[in-house]
What we know:
Helix Hairpins, Methylamine Dehydrogenase, Chain H, disordered N terminus, five-stranded mixed β-sheet, alpha+beta, Immunoglobulin-like
Amino acid sequence: MRKLLVSLFLLWICGTGLAQPKPVLLDQYSVNEGLSQSEVTCLLKDQRGYVWLGTQNGLNRFDGHQFVHYHHQPFQAHSLSNDYILSLAESRQQIWIGTRQGLNRLDLATGLFTRIGETDLSYKITAKALAVDAQGFIWVGTTNGLFRVSPNVGQDFDFNHLLHTSNYVLKDRSIQALKVDSDGFLWVATNRGLYRISPEINHRRSVTLWKSWGTHVYAITQDHRKQLWVGTDQGLNRVDRQLPHRTTLAWVSQKPVLALLASHQNQLWVTVANEGVYRFDLRNPLELPLLSQWIVDDRTRKGLKSNRVTCLFEGPDPKEDVVWMGTRDAGVQAFSQSKNNFQHWESFISPASSLQLFLSVYTDKYQQLWMGSYHGLYRINRNTLEAKSYPDAGLGGAIHAFREDHQGNLWMGGEEGLWRYNRSADRFESVSLGHENVQVKCLFEDRQRNLWIGTDKGVFKRNQNGVLHRFHFHYDGPVSTVEAIHEQSDGSIWVGTLGGLFKMDPRGTISSFYNKTDDAHSLLSNEIYDLHACRNGQFWIASSKGLSRLYFEGDRARFEHFTEEQGLPNNVVYGLLEDPQGRLWMSTNKGISRFDPRTKAFRNYASSDGLLSNEFNVGAFHQSDDGEFFFGGIGILISFHPWQLRESQFLPPIVLTTFRKFEKSFAFDSLLAADKKLNINYNENFISFVYTALDYKDPQKNQYAYKLEGFQDDWNYSGQRRYLSFSNLNPGDYVLKVKASNADGVWNEQKLLEIPITVIPPFWQRWWFYISCALVAAVATWLFYTYRLRNQVARLLELEKVKLAENERVRKLAAQDLHDEFGNTITRISMLTEIIKTKLPEHSDNVLPLLTKISDNANRMYQGTKDFIWAINPDHDNLYEIAIRLKDFGDDVLDKTGIRFDIEGLTESLKDFSLPMGVSRHVIFLFKEAISNTLKHAQATETRLIFKQENNRATIQWIDNGKGFESSKRMTGNGLLNMESRARKFNGTLQVISASEAGTSITLSLPAPAKK
């Protein structure tokens, strides 16, 4: 019974299309793209987004653009223990690598490998499988049993061999695969069955032999319903975890199932030895409908390259659109659903169809797909995919157009004219147009059921009765080939030719439109390929120079143009189709383009999006009754439903792959790990970065933008360029931010690449240098100021010395001159007075008193003149000369008066106390006044003149023992007032002490700076 069910199942598979599998588009990465070796044994995508590939010749890290290789180095302890990689896992941002000779751990920050267990074991294990549980334990399946690694905080590891303990009894040492399910159970695939290990590792019965089929178990996966799928050497099994010892079998092949994957799209991927890849729909796990089988197919250029698929992998993000397939001999291949949006029909015809140039395509009401080319006519049943060619139909050369009329007649036009298809006889019948050698280029049926026929000889209209009418146009040039005919809602017929655009209104009036060089709003090109009237009334023209929209300003026709500058992939636009959202889809020489008239934005699809070929052709486009779009070109004929096109919503992370200073690469991860920022010296004035978005759907179409905060605040959009450099950055703090989009233009605004950068200034731009410079400048300014001040003071002092010297010289000369001239003159007057006295004996009583007065006055003048002459002599500007002068005056005045006169303190040291010019004169007059007052009023018998000097001041004191006077009357006399007035003139201090019958003391205190 089971064999019968298996047979029926296999027959059902064949009946659902495996005989004619639909082609698949896969990206391939092999040794030609940089892979270290062709056999890929295991795959992993880490948390950062890198894809890791294990091969027989080392470990590979892939970022979508380049491979980085890791190999065993014979004399480096921190390299891989072996180049034959068997398994991969990630835990705590560390990559675990199982090899044929040992287990390794890669520290992503340092790039160094640590070999695990070499000191604990006397042999090197072959680590065929790795798994990480929720507690962070690393489970290692080897050819010699099961191991568990407990990573500690440091560099030590607890490496336990769990094969022979009481809690872990496995009947087979050779472990093929490990899987930790959603409940934390560890499933172990061995050569003698499937085991389950409880997460409670101390439980006595922690190991359960779940099922032993007596066969090898190679692969385990778990789907979104938490059901386990197991691949064995006898096929595929579904395991119900709630019912141990019972399995439900879903046999798809009697050959070994080598790898399994339950994808995010609820599909079960199965690789079978030498049979490629199967995909099943997990939304119905009981029936498990087959979606496709991929095998090596020579008809497809980008299909599966090897039937020996060894491993399957999908990233953890549900939005990610890539499934990876490692092969035995063709590297790794990647499947993206959004790159398989297009149904390719060219491969259903024959391998030679890749050389076909498709000129026309059409679907009739019988679900037949018709294709015309330079080599004839083809038909494919859209339901059964059965293909048929018409090599002997007598159609002649190229087939340019199809049209099914309201009666269901299929019309066809080509190089040999017009044909009508006879369905019952499955043949084509020629229909005459009344002219020979007419090439039919397009066909159109209007609302009146008339068939319009565009040819290289103009336009023909055939009514329902078969009556033909030919229309003539005035072409702008000799070309009259008609490429497009369309009817507007008002019944007007528009005709696009290779010589201009024409309109025939219902009254038969013909209007023409041409390109005019001096009018930017005229027709963009006279070579018209297609016309389309949208549901909203807009009228569009496809031409050899771009896309145009017709509008009117009053009665004047104007055209708005869209070209490559506005986003078209190419200016040659062949055909236009409108989807339910009002968007225009057009074929060009560089792929398919979608245009939204509301936003005026283009979305372009090229070979990298699954087209295989970018060049399409005029006339080869069509929209079926069910809304499917068809476009054909050189070696390509595709179809799709616009609303079913899937675009990737995956937000790619962006990583820095290379950092350089002066084009010398540095390990960026280690640099950033130390300070959490990038420190650059001021003289490292050229730095560059290479980064990449880890989106593997189509890495070449990822877009990038960057900004350097602290230098610029706006985003710079750099297209696909992944290289960035800066030079001569000023010292300071910056943050480099880079964002990226996926291949479909969706930007990741949340996860940016952020690199803090500090440009360390030179020492002369550091804060401490500024402070030091300020201090030095302040000190230098102060020293300079002091120096200049001293120089100015010295200069002023020098000038003062010069002035003083000059004044002293003048004063000396004046004193000498006055002494010589004025003194001599007064002396002669006195002498003459005395002579006159002797000569005038007569009248002497009258004359002598007068002469005596003259003589006395002359003497007094002489004495005053002597004081003046003495005072202006600069040699007398010191305390010593004053003391001598007053001593002489006292001796002269008090001599023969009976008054004793003593002088104290008269020493040579008084010469060191100089006085300002003019002070000595006031001091002499002041003390002469005091001595005279003592002589006239004091009735003293003893007097003393005392000189003292201390603390840069000098005192002169006059003391008598006379009768004194009352202090209340001291200021009443003019003499004392004059004395105090003189003292104030030179900042002196005068002190007068007297009391009745107690004598008088007059003390003058004055500053007397010492001479230097």
